[in-house]
Amino acid sequence: MPLAISILDQSIAAAGRPQGQAIRDTIALAQHCERLGYARFWVSEHHNHPTIVGAAPEILIAAIAATTSRIRVGSAGVMLPHYSAYKVAEQFRVLDAIAPGRIDLGLGRAPGSDGRTAFALHPLANERPDQFPSDVRDLQLWLAGEPLPEGHPFRTVHAYPQGDTVPEMWILGSSDFGARVAAHFGLPYSFAWFFTDGQGGQQALDLYRAGYQPSPRHPEPKAGICVWALAADTEEEAQHYFTSRAKWRLFRDRGIYGPLEAPEEAAAYPFGDAEKARIAEMRRNAFVGTGPVVAQRIRDLARRLDLQELAIVTWAHEEQVRHRSYELLARELLPQL
Q: Residue 13 is inside which H or E element, if any?
């Protein structure tokens, strides 16, 4: 089967623009990517983060689902330890009623924030991650309208509205743990390749496939990853636009976060020799360049990892740069075009 290509968007705050614009840009980008033919459009969850301002994926999904008609829409992901599994089930049953058969529920175990913020979200922040497997089980049953295990204290509680379709659950992760949970429950799994620069990705995918227990909806494992990529009409343009991301990562490694700067502003910073060397390394390793070059690197990686799905996340200070990048990659990667 052809490789399914999707989008992850993180609602990045851009220097010089109000943060609310990042949310509106996400909705507009989803509509653009639907027209281009991408399979899924996922949004992330982060908290207390001055760069990644998408804090409520369930709300963004509703807005996107209501203004699109074909593309699948979902979370990448809902950080389940912050919430009641039952409440998440209700939210995604409502989302499925808005866009029947088009909703994905990607789940993560990481806090998506710092420790203090995790406690602000849930007073039992330290204990909740240990309940992740049982919460996944309960959530899966509530979404499908199936009874919880015998003796469960909430066995008679149901998540409404029920319907003929059920959101597709994914487990997301950047370590072995999520891979094992996905394999145990027979769920699709996506590794955050962009988050670790691929470190641990092959091992996690191997563990997932080796331990996979077939489920009625997914008799075979469904493996995916998410990569960071940026395409432009020329190599020079692509590298120019990438400067914003490169400087942001350099400062992130020092614990400094802020809105994404324009590439001209980022390039004007007086980098030292060590910083220049680090940026040069980033440029060598990043999926950045013309559409054909970046697409070929994506295809090569997908073949090497034997993937069924791949999502792309792109940061750029100007929205038209991101729109153009997804257009160029769609030409190369989406067979219907």
A: none
pLDDT at 1: 67
At 165 the three-state DSSP class reads: coil
pTM of the model: 0.96
Helix locations, the chain, DSSP H: 19-36, 57-66, 85-98, 115-121, 132-144, 176-185, 193-196, 201-210, 235-252, 263-267, 273-285, 291-305, 319-333
Closest among 89, 25, 34 to 54, alpha carbons compared? 25
Residue with tokens 């980033």: 282
- Contact yes or no for 42/76 (Cβ under 8 A): yes
pLDDT at residue 41, as a whole number = 98
Sequential DSSP letters for 236-279: HHHHHHHHHHHHHHHHHTTT---PBPPHHHHHTS---HHHHHHH
User: Which fold would CATH assign to domain 4-236+289-333?
Assistant: TIM Barrel (3.20.20)
Neighbours of 190 (CB within 10 A): 30
Encode pLDDT of 81-120 as tens digits. Answer: 999 999 999 999 999 999 999 999 999 998 767 889 999 9
